[in-house]
Fold this sequence. Notes:
Blueprint: E1 2-11, H1 17-27, E2 31-36, E3 41-47, H2 49-61, E4 68-79, E5 87-89, H3 113-119, H4 163-170, E6 191-195, H5 205-214, E7 219-222, E8 227-232, H6 236-246, E9 255-256, H7 260-266, E10 267-268, H8 271-278, E11 284-289, E12 305-309, H9 314-320, E13 326-330, H10 342-348, E14 355-359, E15 371-373, E16 376-379, E17 389-395, E18 398-400, E19 410-419, H11 429-445, E20 452-456, H12 462-469, E21 474-477, H13 479-490, E22 497-507, E23 513-521, E24 526-532, E25 535-536, H14 541-545, H15 548-557, H16 569-578, E26 584-585, H17 588-598, H18 610-618, E27 630-634, E28 637-641, H19 643-654, H20 659-685, E29 689-693, H21 700-712, E30 716-718, H22 730-743
Parallel strand pairs: 2-5, 7-14, 9-12, 11-15, 18-20, 20-21, 22-29, 24-28, 29-30
Antiparallel strand pairs: 1-3, 1-4, 2-3, 6-14, 7-8, 8-13, 9-13, 10-11, 11-12, 15-16, 17-19, 18-19, 22-23, 23-24, 25-26, 27-28
Amino acid sequence: MKSVELKVYGVVQGVGFRPYVSKLANSLSIGGWVKNTSECVEIRLIGEEKEINAFISNLKLSPPPLSRVVKIEKVREENYEGEKPSFIILKSEKKANSARDNLWIPPDVGTCDDCLKEIFNDKDRRYRYPFTNCTNCGPRFTIILDLPYDREKTTMKIFKMCERCEKEYNDINDRRFHAQPNACPECGPELRLLDNRGNKIDGDPIEKTIKLLKEGKIVAIKGIGGFHLAVDALNERAINELRRRKNRPHKPFALMAFNIDRISQFAKVNQGERELLLSPIRPIVLLRKRESSNLPENIAPNNKYVGFMLPYTPLHYLITEPFQALVMTSGNLSDEPIIYENEQALLKLKNIADFFLIHNREIYTPCDDSIVINGMVTRRARGYTPLPLVGEEEFPEILACGGEEKSSFALSRKNTIILSQYIGDLKDLETLERYELLIERFKSLFSLNPRHVVCDLHPLYLSTRYAEATGLPILKVQHHHAHMTSCMWENGISDKVIGIVLDGTGYGIDETIWGGEIFIGDYLEFKRVAHLRPIPLPGGEKAIREPWRIALAYLREIGKEDLIIEEKAKEILRMLKLGINSPLSSGCGRLFDAVSAFLGIRKSISYEAQAAIELEGVANEDEKSAYPAELREEKGEIIIDWKRMWEELVKDVMRGTPVEICSMKFHNYIVNSISEAVEIIRGKTHIEKVVLSGGVFQNQIILHKTVESLTKRGLMVYHHKEVPTNDQGIAVGQLLICAEKIRKGAV
């Protein structure tokens, strides 16, 4: 007989891996043991060589469904003399003073079909129990305090299992064998319903909550990663009241429906979207609205898309069952991160929510819902975080601090990058404190000790100031270079590319605002070779909130400033003439904002990119014509001009061309302009690979038409899928640039 010892790395804790290993070993008459450690899962196999080889083959080819085996390392092999022992599961072990090689902690997992059957089976002991889970589903990342993953290292440690739960937990043939969050009504977490003064409401909390929602009340509901604010999605008055109290007049609300059939009443669902909605990730999926549905317009005003998710906890299933759909928007104050603690919810949301449905299972690490559109992750959080992104080369240990909007951070070890969940816009103390808290928790949980820190070039970002305060060797990276490299790495590209980066704001190396850029470069260096003609932003940040100001600046350049009729127009024109507080910007997002304002779609905004989103929302996608592209060369760079575009747009408006046509002609102008610029750059550089990044590529018209246009020209075009194309993804790019400069001795 042989004795073989293995170390298995990947998502191998919290996914039923040890029970699977034990069953597999017993089926092959193999003795030995398996145990979790803070590094990995360790296995000792004692048996015949043929059976051991079959075991390893099975482990590679058909591991448990929620696991992801990254590496199987054979650490010892020797002959074995003596009687073959039984196969057992040993107590978990925390390795002292050793680096934690296993960076694969499982994310939270949506409720499985088996648990769902139990909670709706009136003969089951978990009938209507809102915390039902098993080895194949339930909370993971948000309740883990430390590794190895055992109950005493989760927030479930305060709940002692009853006799029946204990029996399930120890029965190798039960699907709750070693399910750490295992619980039932007798021994597990409990719900409480409170009013907004903290008084307990008697009766069944779920039935009472359903009744309150039917009456049009706003209820704050605690989930896996934080609170949602819920109202009946067909109650227009309740939605308006939620908007008023939350100070969120226009930004779309996410919805949750009991099943796909109910979602399909309101939105079109293709096969890929269906699979994603039903996946264990359970993200919010942005779907095309059905024109004939009875969904109130104030759910997602002036938007072609509506965000839907399916329930991902038993509590969600029980509450959504009687409704066509519920609004389930993040439980937070405007511009602050999601609230996840009971006391904070009662304190901060008491003027928004009428009632609070809370529970006593602590959330240790808050995590908001993820968002996906057409298979592209635009907010990476629950269901994805903290799964690492894996590359070929090894990285030094680096902390990348990200940007300001849609903030996140990234940490590295070996060949993996761990991108944090979406945190929020890093503009205030609340978000900064959450950001700092999560950095410390990630460093502790993954035993990471960064040796270098990298941040954005912008001197006033809070993330930059945080990086400067760490005392670590620091590298500052240009915003759009980070965008470009994040897309390169996600698509496995190591050679030079043409990088098209379109967004609203990024600090340029010339200290102006960039955002409509084309580069050539790689991880080590980049060169700006084309960009939109800059325009002054009168009032700086104020112009972003009031895009009519930007429209006025553009129209002034073609002598048509009199077309903007606003009370402060003369004052703004004077600012522009004197150059007072009017920073130059080549931001593509700002051009979208200006066109939207001029067409009367959105003259002032209440949430980021609102004007641009609503401009996309009205576009008639059947329109093929475009405003004229205009390129010229200046100081070795291609300038993408907009003068003729604005002149033709003004003519269209004056002759009464429908807004839907004007919008689409503008979209086509953007695609044609960057495509023609790339064609010139390709001719000069012979670079054939093009990467697309930046928040503008969340616009599905721009994304798909750009890919189509460049592909027809024979170029290889790459865009984001798992790393967000918006600013949440720049931490990844920062880390990659820093790592390459360290390798090359450039820092």
